[in-house]
Amino acid sequence: MIFIVVRFTVKSEHRDEWLDRVRPFTEATRGEPGNLWFDWSRSVDDPDEFVLVEAFRDADAGADHVSNPHFQAGLDTMRPMLATTPDIINVDMPGDGWSRMAELELDD
What we know:
The chain is 30% helix and 28% strand. The chain is α+β, with helices and mostly antiparallel strands and 108 residues long. The chain has a single domain, classed as Alpha-Beta Plaits. It is globular.
């Protein structure tokens, strides 16, 4: 599984429109056959910071993602709204999804 976390800092004047503007990119990526998840979060400490947590089945699915036309369109949409270059973590790791957190296991 390819696991990716990207931290985006947007210009303050764009923070309230960010999620709406990236929605087409998000929906298109979630529709890719190799995508496992593609989830946005907003920092509780910095209203201009958004974090994207995404995963792909394997390296081929990740390569397919960046070669899709919606990938470039998404970058073109994001670029003028960014305050800084995004930070990224991209790792190939074993597994195919989320695991349960044993330290907080509930009987559900």
